Amino acid sequence: MSPRFASGSAKASLWCSNDKLAIVNPAPVTTTADGSEFVQSLARGLSVITAFDAEHSSMTLTEVAERTGFSRATARRFLLTLEQLGYVRVTGKDFALTPRVLELGYSYLSSQGLADVIAPHLNELSAEVHESASAAVLDGNDIVYIARSAARKIMQVNITIGTRFPAYATSMGRALLAGLPETDAQRILFDSHPAQLTEFTRTTPAHLTEALDTVRAQGYAFVDQELELGLRALAMPLRDARGNVIAAVNISSSNTTMDVLLPALQRCVLAIEADLATR
Fold first, then answer.
1. pLDDT tens by residue, 114-127
2. Deepest in the core among 4, 41, 132, 182, taking most CB within 10 A?
3. With helix as H, strand as E and coil as C, how does 100-146 read?
4. Are 52 and 96 in contact, with CB atoms under 8 Å apart?
């Protein structure tokens, strides 16, 4: 039986694991200035999880403490708790996340139902153009991949569900940003502190604003080697029945021409939107 908590925030709750019950004291609740309740221990636990990324897939206790800003003792308590819950594994002195962390992301995707609708359409698109097709949503200053159909090629970019990239440097990011009110898009661009990821990356406010204006005018975004050398991507926004941009769909390629990719992408987006309208 997987661990679960009984409901209730004011009283001690019941922890159930391996058919044994034990009393668990409630986490401390902090009342913020606006009167809302904030559970600091939950926030800290999530900080430990998000400290791991592609460049820090495995870390020592000291490294986790440095990445989170916690003391070693505090970091150790959270890591050992996450280990007992199955979200972290320990090998010698190194800590790493386990695949169970994916359940947290899948819970979101399942609750939205969006990825389930998009996935078969991406498979058809990828098969048609023989290139990888993906979908992403905006999360803060980044895009997060929620669905992907990877083409079988010798050279592939390592992208999976949950992969994050800065929105300003990606085709899907620009398609999503262009769908926001202009002030919101400008704020995200400013907060992103755009960096020169390749020699082609546009980083200045003027150039990025121009790029978003182009997306709004033509209805799609094309990014040429701004995220990674040799990688070109074409993206379109995905809208709900009210016309709100809820995600973006793209095709990534190294050599296929636009006149082949764009019509296929347009058909795919229209098919997804029609599918969503019936849900």
1. 888 999 999 999 99
2. 132
3. HHHHHHHHHHHHHCHHHHHHHHHHHHHHHHCCEEEEEEEECCEEEEE
4. yes
